């Protein structure tokens, strides 16, 4: 085999991206003739000199040093100049000095002392910085104190320390380069042993870049600027170093280095290491000072509380604070004398320190000692009956309570959210090292590890028998759907990453409470358990907590199953699901754990965790390969900044929640409940029934049963096809005269087929469907299979749609500018992901909608299983479709279908009643938080005053003064936000507010904080425990008692019970009309509806509904006002029946088994079959869709006939089919809608007549649309107020789409259904509870009569129930006069 010749460099292919293909030199055979070894000139001398130098190094002898270098006028620098002689400076080791081969003998070179290598060097540098920082605390504080609010000067060219003590040490002179924003300043520092160079630099506003013998200093002002830049963006030391280098060179400060072979040249990166050291240790110094200030404030709080309490409590508090007082005084004393003798400090682990540290641990303590000391400090700084000061500082609105023990049903004392993020993983290659920083928010790893071990032991014990809130299948499904619930799911490679991510707990305002490092491949329950235990250790013993977690259902079940949490904690914590994550759970799980349905949760979505991840996402690439301790340091510092900024904006948060969240939701929910006209008692009863039914085990089909049903259905289909083939063969053989043997064989095949059918039936019976669901006994197999398929299909759609929502939310940032725009690559990848998934989602939705129509056709008579609501094919419509999250109901109900399952008005009423309850709960909690913040401001001002007294003339007083100024600023910005308000946003009277704020700081109880706990009984255990009042309706009487306002405004009587009747002057009246007409009316056979819907759904992929019309349809319902005031008709048609009778008498009816046709201009003729005509002949017959549509079209024809006196009125009317509204309801496309309705030329008709068939109730109603006046007139012969809201909303959607289609097809229709200034009004054509029909079969006749009245220019017709038999007869005779061809 011939060798392939390698390509040369010229033949290498060009690379389109990256670094290209690595070039390798061609392999050439060696010249065998060249055997000699060639050595260059002077090789022997160079080799001998190298061996001599190596021997000297091995013996430990130092070679002679080079001659000193003369100073130069050019600014030289070296990346290691600030490195002390005995300490390593940074992670990256400096390059080895270049050794030139001096011929013929080696020349002497300048040799540096050998530095310690590896961890020893890092520990030595850390120890040097730790020993230096205490001596810098007082100079740092005094510098800020002297320069606060003043323009800062540069350091003078010469700094001399005048030693006043009898210092015998030699004085030293150092030349320091001081880096400012725009220039470099050289400083000569003369000092002695009693004050170090670093202290002198800090006193003049310069921070040293090295702990010993610094040669470079960084301006503290520059470090402050960078800190603010870090807080607003992220860590950018490299960028700052490069920017300084560029500025200096442009302003004439040339930076050179000596580490080159050819002499002096420009330095490439002279400041990065210096800035890294200065930034890290200056921030550590700042953190130490802040901890001492916090310690002083905590000490002042304890002493102030002891003075205001009893002598016994004072004695106990005094003994508890003795250690802290001693430590505070020791801090001041040690800080004062720190410059003389800086103490030593040992390195401590940055990731193994408690999150509740209130004061710095002793420098010489180990990690375990630090935990113990900080735990003792935490217990010492906790007032009786109050939360720990650490929690109060992180969120005073949540934790500054004085009264604890609020029940979990009322929302608990505080509400938190928690979640983990695996983007913050840490690469093992980054390593670790000491930085002497004690994190504030991170839990120690040892604490989390102990919890993990305890969980493992607890799960080995037998599981407890607990009452499940959900069926096991629901819990298993949620566990499979969420990766966080699968503890064995690997989200990071443990071989590459030593930390998989970060776990965070936030309060409901998004304030970070705790952080912890995730050091397992998956998200385990040990993290949430460890944080809960830490939280409860810092709360009073009777405190209650509502904890939001993305897998709350699985976690709650696990904690009930095993003794993981102590009983005293488990009974005081309740779990819910985060607002956004709830939509990814099963519907039954949402009913129990979703904050929308959970009593006491208010309107908070508890997604502050996600907002925190979004804000800190820029730190992900920076912390990936850092030291592990530096990663913790950076994340903790950023969490501190986010917390401080969030605390300052708590007043804004409360105002936004009141104005933009509560007001909007309360107003919308109140309007919907007014329109629903259903009593609150009924809605709450229906909610209890719904929750009990949909969380029962009967509501969920086993997966085994679904698979077996599929197999049986396939077998049954094959048997049916075989039967058809046998019948065709039999008929063919009989007609062709086949011999007897063939007929005998055919009879055997028939017998075999009958046997197979019997076995298939037996197989279906063996599935135990009747045992699993006894209610499904007797239902057709196709119906049962379709029902279960629809249930699984909807679950699949919900999962896909939820993923699409998140993708579109990400993509929308690039369009709307929210947060930050996506990059081009991410934008394209997101669009590709959406385009790949969207066809499958649309196909699933179209299949589901087709199954809705098919299931309606397959449903047997008198079956009480409701037909599911079709889904929107547009993502925006699907996002706002609440039915998306509801499972398909698969169990029949006893008696009639429950209203919560069948009545859209009840379903929407329940949703909005929950919204009202959440609004009321939110108002109570906001007022409670306002009281907490007012009390916190008052207490902190008193604490600051006392701290100043304790500190005396200590430089730390400057920080206390800064805190007082911050409190004053927050008080001014919160002034309007902290006023107590009711649910309408009205301020409570000044006297009530004064009484609420009159509580003395540190008192054991507060009147204002106890007020929101007042509750009132309700009709159900799930009812919001809030005071009640009336809701003002627009006008008119009602058939039901009013929906009560979940929060009483000021000035009204308090304490009304939910079931207590209102005063006599209430505009509503008690009671509602209910008509029961005996047996179930049966089915109305509407075959055309199935045909039309199948046609629409089959063609839905051709052209989709436009985004514009869909969005407009969603907004149209918000401009509709339903007014229940009955207005007498302006005109009544007195002669319709007489005119119809005379016309029928003048024509000859055509009787017989014939179909009659209604000829319509521009439309195909309507066929009325004998089956459709039969209900007109029966005294109790109920009209179907074909018969009603045909009769209405025929009445329009005779009223607009030439020379007809009603032609002008009839020409103004557009008569819609009963199936046109179904196109909107079943999400038909725009082309289909235009094809069916455009022949009516509705854009030229000011009056639209829309008959509506309520399938579940088997009832006909009518809506008349008056386009010029923007009115909807609705008619119901039963005079019922129920069910109208959904019908009217559907009509508004239809109007919106028809207006958009007309304008798009160049038929101008100048009417708006979106402008809130152009309101639409709906009013009834009947008096509520005064029916005109007293049976269950004349509703279609009443609708036709009212349609005829409007065609003839009137608004009513003087008919009564006794006139309907005659009207029925005349309608039948009229239809018999129609053509039969």
Automatic annotation (TrEMBL):
Acidic residues: bias regions: 80-89, 1054-1072
Compositionally biased tracts (Low complexity): 63-72, 335-380, 992-1024
Ranges of Pro residues composition bias in the record: 92-107
Domain Ubiquitin-like protease family profile: 1166-1350
Alphabetized UniProt keyword annotations: Hydrolase, Protease
Disordered: annotated span: 62-118, 335-386, 992-1072
UniProt keyword tRNA processing present: no
Keyword Translocase: no
Gene3D superfamilies, per the entry: Adenoviral Proteinase, Chain A
UniProt cross-references to PROSITE patterns, sorted A to Z: ULP_PROTEASE
SUPFAM superfamilies linked to this entry: Cysteine proteinases (SSF54001)
Molecular function terms, GO-annotated: cysteine-type peptidase activity; ubiquitin-like protein peptidase activity
A GO BP entry: proteolysis
Family listed: Belongs to the peptidase C48 family.
Protein name: Ubiquitin-like protease family profile domain-containing protein
Organism: Favolaschia claudopus
Taxonomic lineage of the native organism: Eukaryota, Fungi, Dikarya, Basidiomycota, Agaricomycotina
């Amino acid at each position: 085999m011939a060798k392939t010749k390698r390509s040369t460099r010229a033949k290498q292919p060009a690379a389109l991206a990256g670094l290209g293909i690595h070039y390798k030199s061609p392999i050439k055979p060696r010249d065998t003739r060249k055997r000699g070894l060639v050595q260059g000139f002077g090789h022997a001398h160079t080799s001998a000199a190298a061996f001599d130098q190596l021997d000297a190094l091995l013996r430990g002898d130092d070679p002679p040093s080079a001659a000193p270098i003369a100073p130069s006028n050019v600014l030289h620098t070296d990346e290691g100049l600030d490195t002390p002689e005995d300490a390593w400076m940074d992670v990256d080791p400096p390059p080895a000095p270049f050794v030139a081969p001096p011929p013929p003998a080696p020349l002497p070179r300048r040799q540096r002392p050998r530095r310690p290598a590896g961890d020893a060097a890092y520990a030595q540098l850390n120890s040097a910085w730790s020993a230096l920082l205490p001596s810098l605390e007082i100079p740092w504080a005094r510098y800020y104190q002297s320069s606060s609010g003043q323009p800062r000067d540069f350091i003078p060219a010469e700094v001399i320390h005048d030693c006043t003590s009898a210092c015998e040490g030699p004085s030293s002179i150092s030349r320091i380069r001081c880096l400012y924003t725009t220039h470099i300043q050289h400083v000569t520092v003369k000092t002695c042993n009693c004050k170090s160079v670093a202290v002198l630099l800090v006193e003049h506003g310069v921070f040293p870049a090295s702990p010993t013998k610094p040669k470079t200093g960084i301006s503290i002002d520059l470090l402050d600027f960078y800190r603010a830049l870090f807080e607003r963006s992220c860590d950018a030391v490299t960028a700052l170093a490069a920017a300084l280098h560029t500025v200096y060179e442009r302003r004439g400060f040339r930076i050179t280095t000596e580490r080159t072979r050819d002499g002096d040249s420009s330095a490439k990166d002279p400041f990065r290491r210096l800035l890294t050291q200065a930034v890290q240790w200056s921030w550590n110094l700042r953190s130490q000072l802040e901890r001492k200030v916090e310690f002083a404030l905590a000490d002042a709080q304890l002493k102030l509380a002891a003075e205001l309490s009893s002598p016994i409590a004072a004695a106990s508090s005094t003994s508890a604070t003795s250690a802290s007082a001693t430590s505070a005084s020791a801090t001041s004393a040690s800080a004062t004398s720190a410059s003389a003798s800086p103490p030593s400090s040992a390195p401590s682990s940055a990731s193994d320190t408690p999150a509740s540290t209130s004061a710095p641990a002793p420098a010489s303590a180990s990690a375990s000692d630090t935990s113990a000391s900080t735990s003792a400090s935490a217990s010492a700084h906790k007032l009786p009956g109050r939360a720990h000061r650490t929690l109060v500082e992180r969120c005073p609105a949540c934790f500054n309570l004085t009264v604890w023990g609020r029940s979990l049903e009322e929302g608990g004392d505080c509400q938190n959210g928690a979640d983990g993020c695996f983007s913050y993983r840490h690469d093992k290659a980054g390593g670790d090292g000491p930085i002497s920083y004690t994190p504030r928010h991170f839990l120690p790893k040892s604490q989390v590890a102990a919890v993990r071990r305890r969980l493992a032991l607890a799960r080995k014990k037998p599981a407890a028998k607990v009452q499940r809130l959900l069926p096991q299948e629901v819990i298993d499904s949620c566990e499979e759907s969420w990766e966080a619930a699968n503890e064995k799911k690997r989200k990071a490679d443990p071989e590459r990453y030593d930390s998989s991510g970060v776990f965070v707990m936030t309060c409901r305002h998004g304030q970070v409470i705790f952080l912890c490092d995730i050091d397992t491949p998956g998200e385990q329950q040990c993290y949430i358990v460890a944080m809960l235990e830490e939280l409860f250790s810092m709360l009073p013993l009777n405190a209650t907590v509502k904890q939001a977690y993305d897998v709350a259902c699985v976690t709650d079940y696990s904690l009930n199953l095993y003794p993981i949490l102590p009983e005293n904690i488990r009974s005081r914590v309740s779990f819910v699901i985060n607002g956004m994550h709830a939509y990814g759970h099963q519907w039954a799980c949402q009913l129990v754990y979703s904050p929308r349905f959970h009593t006491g949760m208010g309107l908070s979505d508890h997604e502050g965790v996600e907002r925190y991840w979004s804000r800190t996402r820029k730190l992900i690439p920076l912390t990936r390969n850092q030291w592990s301790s530096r990663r913790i340091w950076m994340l903790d510092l950023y969490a501190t900044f986010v917390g401080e900024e969030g605390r300052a904006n708590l007043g804004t948060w409360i105002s936004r929640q009141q104005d933009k969240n509560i007001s909007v939701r309360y107003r919308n929910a109140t309007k919907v409940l007014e329109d629903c006209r259903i009593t609150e008692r009924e809605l709450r009863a229906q909610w209890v029934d719904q929750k009990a039914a949909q969380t029962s085990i009967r509501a969920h089909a086993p997966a085994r049963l679904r698979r077996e049903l599929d197999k049986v259905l396939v077998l049954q289909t094959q048997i049916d096809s075989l039967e058809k083939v046998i019948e065709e063969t039999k008929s063919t053989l009989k007609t062709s005269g086949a011999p007897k043997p063939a007929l005998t064989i055919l009879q055997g095949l028939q017998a075999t087929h009958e046997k197979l059918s019997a076995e298939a039936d037996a197989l279906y019976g063996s599935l135990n469907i009747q045992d699993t669901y006894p209610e499904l006994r007797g239902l057709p197999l196709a119906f049962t299979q379709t029902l279960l398929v629809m249930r699984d299909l909807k679950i699949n759609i919900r999962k896909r749609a939820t993923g699409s929502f998140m993708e579109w939310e990400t993509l929308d940032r690039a369009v709307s500018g929210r947060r930050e725009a996506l990059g081009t690559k991410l934008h394209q990848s997101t669009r590709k992901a959406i385009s790949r998934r969207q066809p499958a989602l649309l196909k699933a939705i179209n299949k589901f909608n087709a199954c809705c129509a098919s299931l309606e056709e397959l449903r047997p008579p008198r079956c009480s299983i409701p037909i599911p609501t079709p889904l929107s094919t547009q993502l925006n419509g699907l996002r706002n479709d609440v039915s998306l999250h509801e499972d398909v109901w698969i169990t029949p109900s006893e008696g009639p279908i429950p209203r919560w399952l069948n009545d859209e008005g009840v379903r929407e009423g329940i949703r909005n009643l929950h919204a009202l309850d959440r609004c009321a709960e939110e108002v109570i909690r906001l007022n409670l938080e306002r009281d907490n913040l007012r009390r916190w401001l008052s207490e902190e001002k008193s604490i600051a005053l006392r701290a100043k007294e304790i500190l005396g003339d200590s430089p730390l007083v400057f920080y206390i003064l800064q805190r007082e100024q911050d409190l004053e600023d927050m008080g001014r910005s919160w002034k309007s936000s902290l006023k107590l308000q009711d649910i309408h946003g009205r301020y409570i009277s000044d006297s009530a507010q004064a009484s609420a704020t009159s509580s003395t700081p540190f008192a054991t109880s507060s009147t204002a904080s106890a007020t929101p706990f007042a509750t009132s009984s309700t009709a159900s255990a799930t009812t919001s425990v809030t005071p009640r009042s009336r809701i003002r309706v627009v006008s008119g009487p009602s058939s039901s008692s009013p929906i009560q306002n979940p929060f009483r405004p000021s000035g009204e009587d308090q304490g009304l019970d939910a079931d207590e009747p209102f005063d006599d002057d209430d505009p509503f009246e008690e009671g509602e009309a209910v008509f029961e007409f005996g047996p179930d009316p049966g089915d109305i056979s509407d075959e055309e509806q199935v045909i039309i819907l199948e046609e629409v759904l089959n063609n839905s992929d051709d052209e989709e509904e436009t985004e514009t019309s869909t969005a407009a349809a969603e907004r149209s319902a918000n401009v509709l006002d339903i007014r229940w005031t009955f207005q007498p008709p302006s005109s009544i048609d007195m002669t319709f029946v007489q005119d119809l009778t005379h016309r029928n008498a003048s024509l000859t009816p055509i009787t017989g088994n014939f179909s009659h046709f209604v000829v319509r201009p521009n439309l195909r003729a309507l066929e009325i079959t004998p089956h459709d005509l039969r209900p007109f002949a029966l005294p109790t017959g109920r009209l179907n869709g074909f018969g009603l549509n045909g009769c209405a079209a025929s009445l329009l024809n005779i009223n607009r006939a030439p020379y007809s006196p009603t032609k002008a009125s009839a020409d103004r009317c557009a008569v819609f089919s009963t199936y046109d509204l179904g196109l909107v309801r079943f999400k038909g496309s725009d082309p289909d809608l235009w094809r069916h309705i455009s022949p009516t030329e509705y854009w030229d008709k000011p009056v639209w007549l829309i008959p509506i068939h309520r399938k579940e109730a088997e009832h006909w109603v009518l809506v008349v649309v008056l386009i010029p006046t923007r009115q909807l007139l609705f008619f119901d012969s039963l005079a019922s107020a129920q069910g109208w809201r959904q019908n009217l909303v559907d009509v508004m959607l239809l109007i919106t789409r028809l207006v958009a289609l007309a304008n798009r097809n160049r038929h101008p229709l100048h009417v708006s259904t979106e402008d809130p200034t152009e309101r639409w009004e709906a009013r009834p054509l009947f008096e509520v509870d005064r029916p005109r029909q007293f049976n269950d079969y004349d509703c279609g006749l009443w609708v036709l009569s009212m349609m005829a009245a409007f065609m003839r220019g009137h608004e009513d017709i003087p008919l009564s129930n006794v006139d309907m038999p005659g009207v029925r007869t005349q309608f039948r005779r009229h239809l018999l006069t129609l053509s039969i061809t």
